[in-house]
Amino acid sequence: MAEDRDIPDIIKKLLSEGMHSHIVILVFLYKAGKATLSDIQRALTGGRYRAQYNWTMGIINELKQMGLIYEEPPIQVKKLKVRLFDLTEKGRKIAEKLSDILSI
Questions:
Q1: Which of 30, 38, 58, 81 is in Cβ range 3.0-4.6 Å of 95 for a Cys bridge?
Q2: Contact call for residues 40 and 61 (beta carbons, < 8 A)
Q3: What is the pLDDT of residue 60?
Q4: C-alpha distances in angstroms, 78 versus 2, 31, 66, 81?
Q5: pLDDT for 3
């Protein structure tokens, strides 16, 4: 596929530009499957607490712009809206390669 040609460049960018938080989210979604915003916030801190909303959303938005993750339509649970995120096919390929490279 044509879009697969940029996968090595994206991996290089993530690894060389210190985009560790981006990598954490990608590998977390690769291992966990679909995840809520709260799950992602906890993954960014190693589960100790929830990372700041604005910081987390900034990273999520960058990954969306790169075409690596997507957000499903929110699910209404009682008075709460639950946001679910998952990898795109391209994101899954990149997360798999990162997981192999980093032996995670």
A1: 30
A2: no
A3: 98
A4: 43, 28, 33, 8
A5: 62
Q: How far apart are CA 25 and CA 79, in angstroms?
A: 27
Q: What is the pLDDT of residues 47-56, one digit of tens each?
A: 889 999 999 9
What pTM did the predictor assign?
0.91
Those residues with Cβ within 8 angstroms of residue 26's Cβ, 6 or more apart along the chain or in another chain: 14, 63, 68, 69, 87, 91, 94, 95, 98
Q: 47-57 burial, b for 16+ CB within 10 Å, e for fewer? A: eeebbeeeebb
The low-confidence residues of the chain, meaning pLDDT below 70, are 1-3
| Domain residue extents for the chain | 2-101
